[in-house]
Every structure is written in C-alpha cells, then in structure tokens.
Amino acid sequence: MVEPLLQVKDLVKYFPVYQRGILTRKKVGDVHAIDKISFRVGKGETLGLVGESGCGKTTTGKVVLELEQKDSGEVLFEGKDVHEELRRAPRAEKLALRRNMQMVFQNPYGSLDPRMTVFDIISEPFVIHKHIPRDEWQPRVYSLLKMVGLEEYHAERYPHEFSGGQRQRISIARALATEPKFIVADEPVSSLDVSIRAQILNLLEDLQKRTGISFLYISHDLSSVRQVSQHVAVMYLGKIFEYAPVNQLFDKPLNPYTMALLSAVPIPDPETKTKRIILPGDVPSPVNPPSGCRFHPRCPYAADICRAEEPPLRELGSDHLVACHFAEKFA
Ligand code: SF4
Questions:
Q1: What is the pLDDT of residue 93?
Q2: Nearest Cα to Cα of residue 175 among 187, 165, 185, 161
Q3: Same domain for 223 and 276?
Q4: Which atom of ligand 1 is nearest to the CA of 293?
Q5: Same domain for 69 and 161?
Q6: Residues with Cβ within 6 A of ligand 1?
Q7: Looking at residues 11-27, what average pLDDT do you find?
Q8: In what side-by-side order are the strands of the sheet with 72-77?
C-alpha cells in the first residue's frame, strides 16, 4: 500500500439553514454536507471522488484545503493537522503548507482575472510565497507554460485570448507555480468540449508521472475518473458509500448505489450490452437525510434493517471498503 500523503478522518461539515422573519432570523436545521467521512490519498496517487451533484464532493475539497472550516474531524497532511497548523503555526509555516496544497477550479473562465496577463497570473504565487527570486520569475513562468503545453509568447496575452482548454492549462500552470505536493482538481474538465477533455486529462496524468504530485480528482464523470485515478471514493448525501482501487470498483462494485452509477457509464463497444439501473425518485434533501442507510428510499435491495440502522463503512477484501448491510451478497 502506498504511503498516505493526505488522511481525512471522520470529517464533518454542516451548513446552518435559517428562516427569516421581518426582524428575526431563526435556525431551523442544517445541511448535512459532509457527515463523518474518512479517506486517504497516497503519495503520487490520484483519488477520484464521485457522486451526483449536491452529494458533498466540492465541499469536501474546500474543507480539505481549509477554504471552508470543518465542524469536527481531522485532515492530516504528511501527518500534520492542516486546520490546526493554519490556525496556530507561524506565518512562514502556514505559507509553506498553503504552497503544498493547491486547487484547480471547474470554471477556467471565472477563475482567471481578465485584467491580468498570463505572466502575472502564473507569477502571482511567487509574489505571495516569495519562494522564487525575482530574476528567476521569467524562466520559471516559461518553463511552467511549456510543462502545460503552451508557448512562451502566450505569457504576454490575456485570458480572453485563449480557448477553454488553454485557460484550464493556465489554471494548472498557476497551481503548479507553488510546486505543490497535492492538488484538489474540482471538475477540471466538465466545462470543456469532449475533444479538449482528453488533452487536459492526459496532461494531469503526465504531470503526475513527472512530478509525483497527488490529486483529489472530484468529478461526476466516471469515465474520466477511471482514466486518471488509482483509487475511487463514491459519495452519496454527505457519506462515503464505497472506496476501492479503481479497477476493483469498476469491475466488482459492492454497493447498490455504486452499481447504479456505473450502469449509466457508456461503454465504447457496440457488442457489449449493459443494463441501466434507473433509480426511483430524487436525491433526498441533505437538510433532513433519511434514517438508517441514506440510500434506502431509492435502493432496490432495501430491507427493514436499512431503514433502521446506518451501515458502517467496513473492509471487505483488500483495500475495499463498503457501507452496505448486504455487501457480501454482491461479492
Ligand atoms: Fe441498499 Fe440497504 Fe445496502 Fe443501503 S444498506 S445500499 S439500502 S441494501
């Protein structure tokens, strides 16, 4: 098993819901965005985090990077508690930790300042972190542009002069400018054309091979998750339902929710026929999640125990964790 770079233990994040009166504001509940989730990302590995919209994937990425405060639980990076370090450590150590953990956002159109040149965008982390001497900025920016498949002359241009795929390359170059060990990539290809997606995914894989960087790759697109990940965690309504090495999860899923998600993935072989599992109803409200197993109102295998008891995430086979009372039945 690869040594962990990031470990998340029993992480919880709720968002309060308020009811407003004319002069009052009363708390009426909580959105259970993340509810006691645990996972780890190995050194030089990619963990794919998948699930339907609103399941808590993006909140997980933000809480891991401390862009949102956690309610409880731990996020350990190289064994150190990220949230504690960022609160208590001296400024130099905080900056070093921030340098090591970066994020690539979903929307390359909104995440780049249109008034800045590409040179200024990519060199901005040098100003903040002061880890590169001023006279090395230009060669470093050029080398980052080359690393992401762009040219030196692109440095003097503005974001609006680029295509969506090129803008995402600029975002990736900016994230790499701090020489991070870990990047949260939140739906990095979902706003791009299909033809450009493959290029960006290949770029992420190539960067990982060259630099040994680890990724938390957040996506609802299982095909791209399969391409770039070594392990996959499946989320539903703020919980991890399954965690396994990528091929094991795709070839032998042990949770009915994972099975339903996988049945919707198109297979590029006309000879292979798959049966699509259509789940009844919508995803329940995260303000008032169902009792027991949160998937029970939509699960074709639900029994009385599923309505009464929450299934723990337990190990079933090597490195394969499942939250389902009947997982053995599907093994
Ligand atoms: Fe379905 Fe029950 Fe398993 Fe939940 S615990 S996934 S409801 S069979």
A1: 86
A2: 185
A3: no
A4: 4
A5: yes
A6: 255-257, 293, 295-296, 299, 301-302, 306, 311, 324-326
A7: 90
A8: 25-42, 4-20, 72-77, 80-81
